[in-house]
Amino acid sequence: MRRAKRLRRPVLYFMLECKAMAEVTLSSKNQIVIPREARQALQVKAGDKLIVVVRGEKVIVLEKPKSHQAAIRGLARGAYSSAHVQKERQSWD
Predict the structure, then answer these.
(1) How far apart are CA 22 and CA 20, in angstroms?
(2) Pick from 35, 84, 88, 92: CA 20 to 30 A from residue 55's CA?
(3) pLDDT tens-digit profile of 71-88?
(4) What pTM was computed for the model?
(5) Is 14 among the domain residues?
(6) Is-contact 63 42, C-beta < 8 A?
């Protein structure tokens, strides 16, 4: 029930939760300029690497992590019970 309420929030609420939302134009060379607000929100500067992710019809721009290992550390935490993990570790011996 709690999740259902979260999904019903108006679009304006989503816009307020965003760090930056700006319009850009694709140039004739297929380039865009990342607006100042977005650069400040990502804390990136000239020369920094970014990752562009395409999900369906949406494009997401992310700052490239300094360490991919650090970026995904703990991602699956809680996916398996500690008893299951112990059993798997014992099977390796």
Answers:
(1) 7
(2) 35
(3) 778 777 878 888 888 899
(4) 0.49
(5) yes
(6) yes
- Helix or strand or coil: residue 61? strand
Q: How many domains does one find in the chain? A: 1
**What is the domain-level CATH number for residue 69?**
2.10.260.10
Name the residue range of residue 66's domain: 2-75
**42 near 18, Cβ under 8 Å?**
no
Among 47, 22, 16, 52, smallest CA distance to 37 is for: 22
Q: Which residues pair with 63 in a beta bridge?
A: 50
Residue 22 lies in a domain: yes
**Token duo for residue 37:** 């607000």
At 54-67, the pLDDT tens digits run 989 888 888 887 78
Q: Which residues contact 33 (CB under 8 A, 6 or more apart)?
A: 24
Alpha carbons 10 and 7: distance in angstroms, whole number? 9
